[in-house]
Structure formats: C-alpha cells, structure tokens
Amino acid sequence: MKKRKITAGFILSRLLLILLLFLTFFPILVMINMSLKQSVMITNDFFGLPRTIYWQNFVKAFYFVIRPIGNSLFVCVVSLIGILIVVSLSGYAFGRMRFKGRKVLFGMVLVVMMIPYTLLIVPDYEIVAKMGLLNSFWSLIIPYISGQQIFGIILAESFYREMPGDLFEAAKIDGASELQLFTRVALPLSKPILITVGITAGVAMYNDYIWPTITMTSGDEMKTFCQIVFNNAAGKGSNDLGLIAAAFIIGTIPLLVATASCLKYYVQGMLGGAVKG
Description:
The protein is built from 13 helices and no strands. It is an all-alpha fold and 277 residues long. It has one domain (61-276): MetI-like fold (Orthogonal Bundle). It is globular, with a radius of gyration of 23 Å. The two termini are 37 Å apart. The model has no long low-confidence stretch (mean pLDDT 86).
C-alpha cells in the first residue's frame, strides 16, 4: 500500500481542522463547566474548573424548564405532522404528476423560499392577530406549517421526480390508482427524505425564539423552551448562571436524541436530495 506523502499543505489542513473543531466545541465545554459550578464561582473564576460538582443546578433546572420543553415538543410534533403531510403530497404532485400550471406553481414555491424570514414577520403577525390566535399554540403551529414546508417540498419534488418510472408503470399495469401509487410505492421509499425534512424543520422550530416571543406574550405557562431560557439568560428573570447553563443542556437533550436516532436516514435524505436534484 502506497504511503501518503506528508506535505506542508496536508499538515496545515489538519491544523486548521483541529482549530475549527476546538472553536466549535469550546463554547459547549464552557457551558458544561458553568452548569457544574455555583453562580458565585462562575462570576469569580469563569474558566476555572469546579472544586466540587454542584448537581443542584440540574435539579433546579429540570423543574425550571420541564414545562417549556413540553410546550416546545407539543408544538413541534403537531407542526411536523402537518408539514410531512403537505410535503409528501405536494412533492409527489410536483415530481410525478403532470398537470397544467405545474411549473408555474413550483416556481412560486421557489420564489417564496427566496424571501427572507424576517420580511414575513409583520404580515404573519397581522394574519394571526386577525384570526384571534395570539397567545395560543395555534399561533405557532399554523405559521410553522406554512413556513417550514417550502424547503421540504423542493427536496421531496427532486426525490420523487428521480424515482425509477418502472416501479410506477408496473403498479399501473396492476391497476393501481394515483393514490395507491403514492401510498404503496412512493411513500414507503421516501422515508429518508421525510426524516430529513422532519429533523431540519423540527430543529428550526424548537430553536425559534423570535416568533414565539412576538405571539406568546401572556404568562409563562404556554411559553416555549427558548423563550424561557433566553429571556432569563438576557437578565429578564433568574440571574443564576449555573442554573441557566444546566437548563440549556437539559433542553438540548430532546434534539440530540431525535437527531442521533435518525442520523443515518438524515444523511441518506440529504445526499439523495442533493445528488438527484
């Protein structure tokens, strides 16, 4: 086996990679270190290691964020159900069906994706307010479904369009209807792409702070995880830095579990959508 020649460029690239990894994980290590110390120790010796591990931060943080985490998960699950239904049906229609205006409609979807999210905040707020949905979970769920579906439709359209036509022709010969082609042929094979869409949309919704802050202005009972923790981190509540750091770690666990359990399908979906597109 031929040995790889070690050049200056090879060494420089590896050093740069190590530096980038360090810059990526250093804030995470600092947050973990903060969560294991009392607030006084954090203030007096920010980067110092804890002399004794203060697990009480996690106990207090659990009761502090358990309800907001539940609110965020409820909104994400309900929204994801709607998003995946719309994405799978729309992606199949654009990718496999031929009808008048298909290209125009798909072009409109692409145009919507190019509009910055911040430009839609004011009209979205006016719509939600006129519908009387402020300070309710529907003020989050409906805009999330309408906004997070765009990327998924584009990804699903590319996936369905590049699926082998022989599968659908064979099913048509057996007398399958268009609905049966979707449910029995296309949908079972689209698991990776739908999981990719689900993880991407779920992470975006769970980590959203701006929209919940605008529409959920009542008591803390219905506020999301990011609202509660970010507001306290900004000084609008508890000033216990150790508790806030522990709350961030606890709140990250649902995302880590969901992403890690579906990572294989997520990578397949991203590669499939990118290569076939």
